[in-house]
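Supplementary Data S3. Sequence and structure tokens for construct A.
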Amino acid sequence: MSRKRIIVTGGNRGIGKEICKQLVEMGHDVVLTARSVEKGENAAIEVGAKFRELDVSKKDNILEFTQKYKDEVGELDVLINNAGILIDDGMNVLNADLNVVKQTMETNVYGPWILTQELAPLLEKSSDGRIINLSSGMGAIDDLRADHPAYRISKTALNSLTIMTHQQIGASVKANAMCPGWVRTDMGGSGASRPVEKGAETAVWLATAEEIPRGKFLRDKKVIEW
């Protein structure tokens, strides 16, 4: 297995941090990003990754990050869009605060979209480029419900972005979305059914396995319905 250059957004805690940990242990060159410098640096030291500050909800910050990365590194094999927020507990489609919807979309969709746009040229230069979008079964249209409307719509949109990216990007790049399941993290809560190691498993597999699907939505390394 060749050493890969990998960027992971939202890597200071939870699933993102575990993804970074597993990838570093496999010998890959991992850039862990987070909006909090202190938390990000501490996490990077803990897992053995490199740290770069990045707030995916702010376009100017994304552009600054990507330009600096292009200038200083100039190579990328895998982009893992992990950073995300869930801030609409108690809301449904009829009482949703649209400011919360907007904030959720900025982090969960627009951030990954801009990052993909800016880093696509580097990924297309890789002999085995990959984009992995951390989505959720809560955004699957075949099981869509009225609760958590901001989060659900953002993940439905992220899934759509994955499909369109797959159709547009160069043939050397595989773009996929994945659902980690209900994981015991700050977002998932202590009552969640899965450990963080299981939540990270499919993302790590998509980043490193020799043969993976292309343009699909997966959970536990298996294709699921959009």
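Construct B, processed identically:
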Amino acid sequence: MTQITFKDKPITLIGEQVKEGDIAPNFTVLDNSLNLITLDDFKGKKKLISVIPSIDTGVCDQQTRKFNEEASAEDGVILTISVDLPFAQKRWCASNSLDNVVTLSDHRDLSFGENYGVIMQGMRLLARSVFVLNENNKVVYKEIVNEGTDFPDFELALEAYRNV
């Protein structure tokens, strides 16, 4: 099991850890209209998956904005996944006028968190992380941020996304 910290307190991550070089496992999440979405819905596209604990926090807000701005020119899809309710994600996107990122909710059954090994035990939140998948869903980049309140390495993630 992987250990991180969240606000300097040790947290164990549960779920199956995904590694670079793996074929990414499928998952089922909800979009802002409560439609079931799976990894297969983005078949044939490269993907930058930005995972955040909650869209309504400062670091998560900035992480989502940064990937929205920096990766939008690429031919692929930017997914932001959290356990926020779809209604909160929809409200946040509308109030922030972000249209290059797809927000998805894992609140229903933690399918993404379980399959990627990023559930923070005892918190029902996802650990801050970034995954870059190529068009065939091979994981070409992975970062699980050691301290949950810190930013991911934007430059390394964006470089991996641009070079897929």
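Residues 70 and 102 are 14 Å apart (CA to CA). DSSP finds four helices and eleven strands in the chain.
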